[in-house]
Amino acid sequence: MQRPELEEIFQRFSGKEHWLTVDEVESFLKEQKEMATKEICLYVMQKYGLNDNAKHSQLLTQDGFMMYLLSPDGDVFNSDHDQAYQDMTQPLSHYFISTSHNTYLMEDQLGGPSSTEAYIRALLRGCRCVELDCWEGPHGEPMIYHGYTFTSKILFKDVITTIREYAFRVSPYPVILSLENHCGQEQQAVMARHLKEILGNMLVTAPIDGKPPNELPSPEELKRKILIKGKKFQTSGSTPEQQEETADECEEENVKNEKKSKKVKG
C-alpha cells in the first residue's frame, strides 16, 4: 500500500539511493531511541527485507523498510501493554474507559450510513463503551440512527445481536451500552425484551453476588458482562402515586411561600 509519509522517512536516511545500508539503518534506529547494534540492524534487514539480492548485499529496500515499520518490532507502543497489566480489581469508576461516540456511523453524522459494521470495528479495536441512539421505528421495532438528520437507520435488535457476537473478541472486560433513549414506553419495553433475550446471562440486571454494592464492581468481577448506561425518563402519563407525590410537593412549596410572605410583611 502507498504510504507517502514512510517514503519520505526512507528518502531522508537513504539519500538518493533505493536502499539503506547497515549504517543508515543503525542511524535511523538510534534516532528513534531504539537499541541499535550492527547485529540488530542485520536482523531487521534479514527478517523484513523482501529482495534476496539486497539482503545478500546487506541492504534494505524501501519495501522492506516499510514492512519493518508496520510490524510488531517497529511498533511505537510497548507490546507488554497489549494485555491487561494493571490492577483490574478496583471499582469500575477508577478507570478511564475506551469510549465510542455515535458508534453506529460509518461516515459523517449528517447523511452518512449507519451500520452494524461500525460496532464490529469499534469492538475489535478494544472499545469498551459504545453508543446507541434509539428512536421509534416502524412495526413496533426501535431503530438506531442520528436523530433529525439524513443518516440511514438500523434495527436496535440487529445492533444488540452484533454486540453479543463481538463484545469479547479482543477483551474479556465489560462492555457498556450507552443508550440515548428517545422511544416511548411501548418501544422501550421492546428494547428491554431484546436486551434480555439476546444478551441473556451477559446482561447485568442485578447486583453482583446478590449483595447491594457500596461501590461499583471491578472490571475483574464484570468480565464478559454487558452493562446498560442511560437516563431514566419520566413516563408520559403519571401514576396515582406520582400524582399524590406531586400534590404533596406543591403543598409543601405553598407553605414555604406563605411563610416567606409573612416574614416580609412582618
Features:
single chain, 10% strand, alpha/beta, 266 residues, 5-stranded mixed beta sheet, two-stranded antiparallel ribbon, PLipase_C_PInositol-sp_X_dom, 9 helices, 2 domains, 40% helix, TIM Barrel, elongated, Recoverin, domain 1
Name the CATH superfamily assignment of the largest domain. Answer: Phosphatidylinositol (PI) phosphodiesterase
Number of helices: 9
User: What is the helix/strand order?
Assistant: HEHHHEHHEEEHEHEH
> Major beta sheet, specifics?
5 strands, mixed
Write the SSE topology.
Layout (H helix, E strand, L loop, with lengths): L3 H11 L4 E2 L1 H10 L6 H11 L3 H5 L3 E2 H8 L46 H9 L4 E7 L7 E2 L9 E2 H11 L8 E7 L3 H15 L26 E5 L9 H26 L1
Parallel strand pairs: 3-6, 6-7
Antiparallel strand pairs: 1-2, 3-4, 4-5
What does this structure look like?
The chain has 9 helices and 7 strands, in the order αβαααβααβββαβαβα. The chain is elongated and about 75 Å long. The protein folds into 2 domains: 4-74, Recoverin, domain 1 (Orthogonal Bundle); 92-230, Alpha-Beta Barrel (TIM Barrel). The strands form 2 sheets. A 5-stranded mixed β-sheet has the order 5-4-3-6-7. Strands 1-2 form a two-stranded antiparallel ribbon. Helices cover 40% and strands 10% of the residues. The longest helix has 26 residues, at 240-265. It is of the alpha/beta class and 266 residues long. The chain starts with a helix and ends with a helix. α6 (116-124) packs parallel to α7. β6, α8 and β7 (226-230) form a beta-alpha-beta unit. It is an enzyme of class 3 (hydrolase). Its main location: cytoplasm. GO terms for molecular function: phosphatidylinositol-4,5-bisphosphate phospholipase C activity. This is Phosphoinositide phospholipase C. Residues 242-252 have a biased composition (Acidic residues).
